[in-house]
Amino acid sequence: MQYLQKRLRTLESENTSLEQLSSRLRTDLEAASKRATQADQARLETAEKLRSSLRSQEDQERLMHQVQETNLLRESNVTLRYSYSCLLEPLLH
Fold first, then answer.
1. pTM assigned to the model
2. Cα torsion for 55, 60, 66, 67, to the nearest 10°?
């Protein structure tokens, strides 16, 4: 009988330890889940910022190309005006 009482106390003690371990593991799991969710959110935010940055970079490259084209058109316009004035000058005199 004493053996059974001792065994019962041992099992109750083990049960209490297992319940504490279970509680600790549950808490750890919840914390890990929360960190994983936060990491996912941070990853999504970083990805969105990167996409936005790439779009901005593409927009800037497109604008720079348009500026170069505009400058070429201006130079061409100046050249054409000069050529026109050179051709027109003998006719006016």
1. 0.55
2. 170
Distance CA 13, CA 6 (A): 11
From residue 77, how far is each of 27, 41, 63 by CA, in Å?
A: 74, 53, 21
Cα 72 to Cα 79: distance, rounded to the nearest angstrom: 10
Instruction: Work out the average pLDDT over 9-38.
Output: 95
Enclosing H/E stretch for 83: helix 2-92
- Kindly tell me if the per-residue pLDDT of 14 is higher than 90: yes
Q: Which residue has the tokens 């890990």?
A: 32
Q: Cα(32)–Cα(22) distance, rounded to whole angstroms?
A: 15
Q: How far apart are CA 30 and CA 38, in angstroms?
A: 12
Which phi and psi angles does 50 have, rounded to 5°? Answer: -65, -45
Q: HSE, CB side, 13 Å, CA atoms: give it for residue 74.
A: 6
